[in-house]
Specification:
Elements (H helix, E strand, L loop, with lengths): L1 H4 L2 E3 L4 E3 L6 H9 L4 H6 L5 H13 L20 H4 L1 H5 L7 H14 L3 H13 L6 H11 L3 H11 L5 H15 L2 H7 E2 L2 E2 L1 H10 L5 H28 L3
Antiparallel strand pairs: 1-2, 3-4
Helix pairs in contact: 2-4, 4-14, 7-8, 7-9, 7-14, 8-9, 9-10, 10-13, 11-12, 11-14
Amino acid sequence: MGVLGDRLIVDGVGYRLRSDGSAVADLIGRLESGELPGAIVATGAVTPADLIAALAHDALGDDAALGLPLVQAPPRRPRLARALSEPAWAAVFPGAASRSRRALAAGLLQLGDFWDASHEAAQQADDQGERDYSAYWHGLAHRREPDPGNAAYWFRRVGRHPVFAPLAAAARPLLDEHGDSALAGRLISGGTWNAMAMIDLCTEARPDTPRETLARRLQRLEMWLLLEATYAGLAALAPK
């Protein structure tokens, strides 16, 4: 899926990087053991995009996976907290503005279910004037808190986000498979995504129901596409 998903391949053992064949599980293990992203990419064999793709896949799974729960949960990999934080990525993107690195950290930490740290990074990025991605991650955090009213506030600040069009296109097959045309019409309006309708779906979906399954799969798509966009925005701003 896009700039991150294309960096992964699957074989009989599991998912690997297309670039050098590193196993995703091995990269995650190195980060859990205390090795920082800057040290891993310093050799040049693994790029920042490779490492972010590995983290995204570990958190969200492949296209058949459900991704994260709709409501925040304890971190599945608590030892990743340091590696997902903004200071850890300063060595990877040393010339980028800290607000842009904080927006990336907000996404990575949310995928890791470090809810408080993700929320703080999103708020700090917003306070510093980051206007492209931090509000979206902030809205996702409150949607998963769950605090739908606060989530709606942040999604109003998001407005019409560039991720909405590709998200609507990627979500259409899942909605068609689910077979609820009224719900599909609320989530996709005028060819774009309706973030407020997604808040309603996530709030109202009962555990262990087809709607919860649908909502989680849609959330997985949303998080993956938003992380791709956040990374691409940061990489474009970082001095070469």
